[in-house]
Every structure is written in structure tokens, then in C-alpha cells.
Specification:
alpha+beta, 432 residues
């Protein structure tokens, strides 16, 4: 669990991230993780990572630092080319990072994640049915619920958007169908042979779709290419490598322009930052929509049919239900106009120092909330906050940065890392 933020105007990019990392099922929280990195010795490029701190069982910090070493003094015309080069680096170093060895582990984790959702649907439907009939369910009723939970999962897979860049279906079907069969039958032993074949087929298709739920590393690249004068941002979800190909999806891109001078992107645990920026967060909006729909059903279920002409009750119900989403959209639009817009207007003209302070403050308020609120997220954001500013002329500049070592005891670190970009013979860099 973590929190990060990217803020941009015409002058600079501010990046900030906390240091908390959750180990196991919230069994322990350490406040020493690195989530903000400069990925080039010379180019003005930075990246924030969140969600999974490992990629194919390899620490992502290690991967980024190895990439920085390989990139050396090379530069590209655009930020997009840096991202493309990094993705190519991952594919070309499958053997170095043992990605092939961990392929089955990644596939298993994705399938297990999906099946856990299926089990959750089954248990929810079971409890709803028991509450409704107020008796022990018959074997036939239980079987119907089992079938329905499978149908829900299959429909969910069908509704996912297709990945633009990958084609894993045939490979999964050829190499891992037995593994998928085993995972399914172990998780839901009651599944029929017909449904087993159908669900296995759908799961193979799943890897060609934008399903990343709990099995991804979030990466936000921000900076300037050689031919770019204004800041740019590319936000991606990185899944894993299958058959020497990278499974990922681009979530959002942003280019600051003359007529679009400000941008702010909360990352990971965004609820507190969204509330500050919009006056409301996505979680609350979704809950309003859910509760409203639930109340509509409750009211109509308790209305006498005599109030309606034949067949009109369900029609009226549907008309009211379809009006919920436009209401939610209007709330979001109002929040955007009344809360976010004044902030972005201010961000567009903020000096560099204030941009960094705003980024740090957004992580601070999230950390404070996680510190004092006694909920399931307590302590999941915290520790030292790393803050960096990126400008076209000055490059990547650390404003705040934690170290696991004392700088004065390790002059060799600065000699080896900064000598080529202006260090003195005594190991003290001119610029850090």
C-alpha cells in the first residue's frame, strides 16, 4: 500500500511518494521503501512505482537501477520513447531477471485472483438466498447458485476491454490449460466438466484483456524528451512477462500545452487526495450510486402492483434506475468545476518551490488520515516522504530524499555515481 502524486505545470513536474510498504496480509508495515526514482543520469525523467513492489518476483527497484545503468548517457526525443525503451529492456533481459522461471507463478496469481472473486460472488449469492427464504437451501438451489456465480465470472471476463499490444490466448491454451484446470478444480471442486472447459477457455482469453486487479505494478513516468519543451506523463499498469512478451496497459497520458497548463494525478491510495481536490472521492460516489439503486429496488418491491398498470411497474423501475448514473455524473461535474478547477488554475502559475510543497502536502494529509483513522488501512501510508522536481533545464532534482546510509560515511558512493557528471576528486559532487 502506498500513496504518490504527480503534479505538472509549464515550468516543472513535482513528484512525491511515501515510504510505507505492507508485508504479507497487513502483517507488518515498514517505512523504508523507495518508490520514487530518477531513471537516467542525464535526462530529466522520473518514475513513481506503487501497488506491487516486485515484478515477476524481482524487486522493481533493482530493475529500475539496472535499467538506469544500461541507459547511461543515452537520450530520446520524447518521453514515450523512454517508456518504450524501458519495456524493451524488460523483454530483452528475460534471462537476467529469471522472468521465464517466474512465468507460471505470475499466471497462477492472476488466475487465483479471478477465482477468489468467483468464490466471493458465490458466498454473496448464498447469503442473499438464505436471507430471502429463511431456511436451509436445497441441493438444487445451491447448484443454481454455483452455476450463477460461474456465469457472473464469465460475463465479467467478456466485458473486459482488449489489450492493444498482446496476444497470449493461444500460448496459454497450449502451455497452461492443465495448470488452469487444476487451479479451477482445486478452488471450486463442484464445477461440472462442461463449465470447467468453458471457464478455462475464458480464463485463457482473460490474459488478452485489461484485467490487472491485484497483480500489477503501477508506473508513472514523467519528464521531458529532447524535443519536448513542456512536461509529459505516462501512467501504466505492468502485469508480467508471458512467452517473452510484456503484458501491460497504458492508463493515461498527459502533455502540458499552452492551452492546458496544469495537471494533477493522485496515485495508489487516492481517496484522501481526491476528497481534497474534488470535495468527494470515487469510493463515496460509487457507494452513493449503489445505495440509491438498492433503495429504488426496496421501494418498488414494497409498492402494491395496484399503483401501476399491467406490466408498467418494472418499466417505471428501469426508468428510475437509468437516471441514477446521470445524477452521479452531474455530481462529479459539479465537484470538478467547484473544487478541482480553482486548484488547477492555481497550479498553472505555482512557482517550482510551491509545486514541491503541494506534492509533499498531498502525501502528508493521506499519511495523517491513515495514521489516525482506525480502519483497515491504518498505517498503510507513512514514513519519510521523497520529493523531486523535474525541469527542462535543471533535470531531476531531489527536494527530499531518504537514505539507508549516512552520506558523510560513504564518499565512494558519490564518487562512483556522480564523478562523470561533475564530481570532484574527493568524491563530493557538484550536483546531487
Amino acid at each position: 500500500m502506498s500513496a504518490g502524486i504527480c503534479i505538472m505545470n509549464k515550468n516543472a513536474i513535482a513528484l512525491a511518494a511515501d515510504s510505507a510498504v505492507t508485508v504479507g496480509n497487513h502483517l507488518a508495515i515498514h517505512n523504508s521503501a523507495n518508490k520514487l526514482f530518477n531513471v537516467s543520469r542525464v535526462a530529466p525523467i522520473g518514475v513513481i512505482i506503487y501497488a506491487n513492489a516486485t515484478f515477476m518476483n524481482i524487486p522493481f527497484e533493482l530493475i529500475l537501477k539496472q535499467y538506469k545503468k544500461q541507459l547511461a548517457d543515452n537520450t530520446f526525443s520524447t518521453l514515450q520513447e523512454y517508456v518504450k525503451d524501458f519495456f524493451q529492456y524488460l523483454i530483452q533481459n528475460v534471462d537476467l531477471f529469471h522472468f521465464k522461471t517466474n512465468e507460471v507463478s505470475y499466471i497462477t496469481s492472476v488466475v487465483t485472483d479471478l477465482l477468489s472473486g468467483l468464490i466471493g460472488d458465490y458466498q454473496r449469492l448464498l447469503q442473499e438466498k438464505i436471507s430471502k427464504v429463511n431456511r436451509e437451501l436445497t441441493p438444487e438451489e445451491i447448484e443454481n447458485i454455483q452455476d450463477e456465480s460461474i456465469r457472473i465470472t464469465i460475463n465479467y471476463i467478456d466485458q473486459q476491454n482488449i489489450l492493444e499490444n498482446t496476444h497470449f490466448y493461444e500460448y496459454l491454451k497450449d502451455q497452461y490449460i492443465d495448470t488452469i484446470h487444476h487451479l479451477i478444480t482445486t478452488t471450486i471442486p463442484w464445477i461440472s466438466s462442461k463449465d470447467l472447459s468453458l471457464l478455462s477457455e475464458e480464463i485463457c482469453k482473460l490474459f488478452d484483456k485489461k484485467f490487472f486487479r491485484n497483480n500489477f505494478t503501477g508506473l508513472t513516468f514523467a519528464g521531458y524528451g529532447e524535443n519536448e519543451i513542456f512536461p509529459n506523463m505516462i501512467h501504466v499498469h505492468l502485469g508480467g512477462i508471458i512467452n517473452n512478451d510484456l503484458r501491460y496497459t497504458i492508463i493515461e497520458t498527459k502533455n502540458i500545452q499552452e492551452n492546458d497548463p496544469a495537471f494533477i494525478l493522485p496515485l495508489a491510495q487516492t481517496d484522501v487526495m481526491q476528497t481534497f481536490l474534488f470535495g468527494i472521492n470515487d469510493q463515496l460516489l460509487n457507494e452513493i450510486a449503489r445505495k440509491t439503486e438498492e433503495q429504488v429496488h426496496f421501494c418498488f418491491n414494497n409498492l402494491s402492483p395496484s399503483y401501476f398498470s399491467d406490466g408498467k411497474k418494472d418499466k417505471v423501475r428501469q426508468i428510475i434506475l437509468t437516471s441514477i448514473q446521470p445524477i452521479i455524473n452531474q455530481i462529479a461535474l459539479t465537484a470538478n468545476q467547484n473544487y478541482l478547477l480553482p486548484i488547477t488554475q492555481s497550479i498553472s502559475s505555482l512557482p517550482i518551490e510551491e509545486l514541491a510543497l503541494l506534492a509533499e502536502s498531498m502525501i502528508n494529509i493521506t499519511s495523517l488520515r491513515r495514521k489516525v483513522a482506525l480502519d483497515n488501512n491504518i498505517g498503510t501510508v507513512g514514513g519519510p516522504i521523497d520529493v523531486a522536481i523535474i525541469t527542462k533545464s535543471d533535470g531531476f532534482i531531489w527536494i527530499k530524499r531518504k537514505h539507508y546510509f549516512k552520506q558523510e560515511y560513504n564518499p565512494q558512493y558519490y564518487y562512483s555515481h556522480y564523478w562523470n557528471i561533475g564530481g570532484n576528486f574527493n568524491g563530493e559532487p557538484k550536483h546531487i
